[in-house]
Amino acid sequence: VTVQGGVTVSVSASEARRISTDLSSRLRKAKKLSLVLDLDHTLVHATGDPRAAVYCSSLANNEGGPPGGAGPGGGGGGCRRRSDVRTLSLPASEGAPPGAKLPPRAGHQPPTMRHFVKLRPHLSSFLSSVSRRYELTIYTAGTRSYADKVADLMCRHLVGARLDEEGLEALREKLRMAEERLEGYE
Predict the structure, then answer these.
(1) Per-position b or e across 122-145, b if 16+ CB within 10 A of its CB
(2) Pseudo-torsion of CA 138, 143, 147, 152, nearest 10°?
(3) Is 38 part of the annotated catalytic residue set?
(4) Of 22, 38, 49, 148, which is the active-site residue?
(5) Is the pTM value of this prediction over 0.90?
């Protein structure tokens, strides 16, 4: 089996049978089947193209709001006029061509690249429906960190969370500033 980063993992035939038997037993007890869903172009559309930010800004400007500003429809960051479009940051080195010049970052943080993720229509109701009958697994040809972040984003969407990664970071910064002000009163 080839896993993240092209690493190949081999298991013996007996270990493969044991894994298969354990999985089958667990699924039978839960009375479910296994369903593997491709992340990209099936559940979401994602892009790191900077033109997506321009598009989102033009939506905000056309509706009388500030570029990227909060407004009706929420979204929690990046494309706030579209509740189905969220943002996340990934290390810029992932997906960058070898030898690419990456933008500098302050401190010890690696450079990141903002991605826009559009959730497919009716994703929430679809996942709620199929999860009753299937154990869900997502597949992507992308990196592990991309898969983890998009899965987290989808889970937050399913429970109605309105903030994405950028919104959460802005909230953390506000909390940090409030804590600093409170420390000044002591």
Answers:
(1) ebeeebeeeeeebeeebebebbee
(2) 160
(3) yes
(4) 38
(5) no
End-to-end CA distance of the chain: give it in Å, rounded: 58
User: 3-state DSSP call for residue 83?
Assistant: coil
3-class SS shares of the chain: helix, strand, coil, % to 5 = 40, 20, 40
For 129, the token pair is 């429906």
Active site residue 148: no
Taking the CA atoms of residue 109, residue 142, residue 103 and residue 67 in that order, the dihedral angle to the nearest 10 degrees is -90
DSSP string, 32-53: -EEEEEETBTTTEEEE--THHH
From the candidates 40, 84, 152, 164, give the one annotated as an active-site residue. Answer: 40
Mean per-residue pLDDT pooled into runs of 10, the chain (186 residues): 72 91 93 93 89 74 46 45 78 62 61 86 89 90 86 78 66 78 72
**Token duo for residue 60:** 């905000």
- What's the burial of 53, exposed, middle or buried (CB within 10 Å: 0-12/13-18/19+)? middle
Question: Where are the extended beta strands (E) located within 40-120?
Answer: 44-47, 85-91, 112-119
Would you state the structure tokens that stand for residue 45, as one six-digit string? 């559309």
For 183, residues 6+ apart whose C-beta sits below 8 A from its C-beta are none
